[in-house]
Amino acid sequence: MQRLDDTPSQPVTAVMAVRVATAVALAVVLLCSACANSRGGRSAAVEVRDQSGFTITEEVRVGSGVRRDFDRALRLLEQKEYERSIALFVEVTQAAPEVTAAHIDLGMAYRRGGDLERAETSLRRALALNPRHPVAHNELGIVYRRSGRFDEARSSYETALELYPRFHFARRNLAILCDLYLRDFGCAVEHYTLYTQAVPGDETAAMWIADLRNRTGQ
């Protein structure tokens, strides 16, 4: 039974959010406050949230031009204009290097464009800013998996889950990794089951569990 490949998080936007266009995408939203500082920047809260109600918030300060470029880069990413999106995200990360979301989205754009090496570099920069960011760990796991570095992919997914056990994107990816690439069927059944408990409406995953149990006799 065919598995969907990986479950990316949503790219992070402004409304800065990392938005990946999937039904189970995680939104990371940059909410600008009403008060501008003397340099024209705005205080902002970057908030990660999903349907389960878990959130991460980080305070950043950006100018209106940075936010405009971020929004445009995000639209280009969603339109699969990867080269143009990358060029703008690079400008954003240079203008506001402290904004974790921009580095994550740049990593997503590189990955989607097939440049796994630069994707890894961008995601590592994001984690240097915020080592507890589950989107960055999930995306880095995808990069590792697509590079054939399965043990490192597992470690990235597990780190995301150690930090946020309800982070079902990483849970699903770990189950698929264990099932199809590591052939660790006990791990696969465990995490498929936990994933379906967190996302009970995912009927496909329920079928995967049944298929796996049938194949392994578990």
Please provide a written account of the structure:
The chain has helices at 64-78, 82-95, 100-112, 116-129, 134-146, 150-163, 168-181, 185-198, 203-216, and strands at 11-13, 16-18, 27-36, 41-49, 55-63. The protein has 218 residues and is α+β, with helices and mostly antiparallel strands. It has a single domain, classed as Serine Threonine Protein Phosphatase 5, Tetratricopeptide repeat, CATH 1.25.40.10. The protein has a three-stranded antiparallel β-sheet. Strands 1-2 form a two-stranded antiparallel ribbon. Strand 3 (27-36) and strand 4 (41-49) form a beta hairpin. Helix 3 runs antiparallel to helix 4 and helix 4 (116-129) packs antiparallel against helix 5. It is elongated. The model is unreliable at 13-47 (pLDDT under 50).
CATH topology: Serine Threonine Protein Phosphatase 5, Tetratricopeptide repeat
- The outline comes out as elongated
Look at the helices and sheets and give the structural class: alpha+beta
CATH superfamily: Tetratricopeptide repeat domain
User: CATH top level?
Assistant: Mainly Alpha
Overall average residue pLDDT: 78
**Helicity range:** 55-70%
- Which regions contain 5 or more consecutive residues with pLDDT less than 50? 13-47
Please report the total strand number as a whole number. 5
